[in-house]
Protein 1
Amino acid sequence: EAGVTQSPTHLIKTRGQQATLRCSPISGHTSVYWYQQALGLGLQFLLWYDEGEERNRGNFPPRFSGRQFPNYSSELNVNALELEDSALYLCASSRLGGSYQETQYFGPGTRLLVL
Amino acid sequence: DQQVKQNSPSLSVQEGRISILNCDYTNSMFDYFLWYKKYPAEGPTFLISISSIKDKNEDGRFTVFLNKSAKHLSLHIVPSQPGDSAVYFCAASAQQAGGTSYGKLTFGQGTILTVHP
């Protein structure tokens, strides 16, 4: 069974540009989660999508947004990039999003560098 | 406000011995806990989980213990192997009314485990 896949693996942007990161969940998983791991910090919850809807978001500004497509894949968009957005962005998926006991399975991440 | 804490940034263990990684939490609403292992340049890999209705869960070499009254959990790896060398994260989730999810895992800062041959 294929795991969570993310693209691109690396992304270099300049300040003020927009970045788009993509995620394909494990087959049969309907929920997708996004996390940020900045240098020296732990994993911080960004967004949760389930059945095409945004269900919850973490403490991040509105320039972090995304969407989930009918095939359950997801996109994370970061507008007006700032230097501190440089981080590893991890996507995870779970089979069902409704239960708090769902295990989230992570992809390899996209490393974003903002210059 | 760090709700999940792993107070030991690193742990060094000899191959074949037991590794014990610890995690403390402050939010009493947390009732599902997970451990992940992470190698450099890879995403976290799920290891084992435990619900708050249990105090122990075992899977092969990995055992997780939960002490709800102390808000403490630990991961035991026996026997430790050099391939276990990685960063270990504990994570917690809370339930909303009706047992539904917020979708959010709250992670600790991680503990770097080094297993020496």
Note: Chain A is about 0% helix and 50% strand.
Protein 2
Amino acid sequence: EAGVAQSPRYKIIEKRQSVAFWCNPISGHATLYWYQQILGQGPKLLIQFQNNGVVDDSQLPKDRFSAERLKGVDSTLKIQPAKLEDSAVYLCASSFSRDRRGSRSGNTIYFGEGSWLTVV
Amino acid sequence: SQKIEQNSEALNIQEGKTATLTCNYTNYSPAYLQWYRQDPGRGPVFLLLIRENEKEKRKERLKVTFDTTLKQSLFHITASQPADSATYLCALGGNYGQNFVFGPGTRLSVLP
């Protein structure tokens, strides 16, 4: 089974420029996540999609970050304009979700290798 | 606000010993807790999940405990090997698919 695919793997841009990251989740996974991981810290959720609808984007800096999930499959995360503090690894992840109302059993989240962003 | 702490930033142990990593949390009532392994330059990889009504879970050389009274999970690697060297992340989940939060991670080094 193919894993979560991300590109580009590495990107260096100047501040105030824009960048876009692409993610293809595991086939059949309805839930897609974008995480930001700063060096030495744990991943922080930026946005979560369920199919092509947004479930949680409370920590997404909406003045500069945007994300979309076309047709409930691939997703793109964009940063415009970039700031120095945006230097981080951007991790895409997916999980298989079923309609289990009230369930608190948890899903395994599968991560991609990440896209490393350096803003200079 | 929710807070997750993992014992120390880095832990060094001798090969063959048992590594014990700690995950403590406050202002959170997780329904389940997960442990992930992350190697340098790679994404996290799922290891174990333990639910709020479970005290202990085992998988090969791995053992996880979950004490909701102490608000703590312990992650044990027995007979540790240099290949176990990595960063280990705990993550808490509340209701299904929501409020999933990662801790800062502990970098484990197993010395030969």
Note: Chain A has no helices and eleven strands.
